[in-house]
Amino acid sequence: MKLNQEQNIERVLESAVVVRWADLMRGTERGLIHVEYGFFPSGTLNFLEVWASVTRGYWLLACSYWMSPSELHGAAVHFDNGYQSEGFAQVLAIVMQHQKAFALPLNLGRQGWLRITAPTELESIAAAASVRGAVDCINFQARRASAGHG
After folding, report:
1. Calpha distance 31→22 (Å, rounded)
2. What is the pLDDT of residues 12-23, one digit of tens each?
């Protein structure tokens, strides 16, 4: 069971950022967040980085998520530059570990990216519903698989 096509991984990642905007922007309502991601040859995501800009032209790496470790980084989420968000880390782990539940972006042989602006109240409400729906669907799939129905 795949999620609704509207629930592609980019939309879920964007929604997760919007839901945790205050954490990722350190309480500032204005600014930009840039999510950059790269692929495995199989077309699934290998890594993503979340960059925050409170001041125009100045970006800080807030966190990264790697699917496989290397000499430079471990697998899973890693926060940088004093950023921390347990809620964002949890959603990121669920999404990255269950990528095949979502419509994935095409691997065009280059890194992909999303730019996210400060959300409105309605966008925040919609983002929370999107994240809840994605997590609920993944949890449902996991329960079905463990019960032998997957």
Report:
1. 11
2. 999 999 999 999
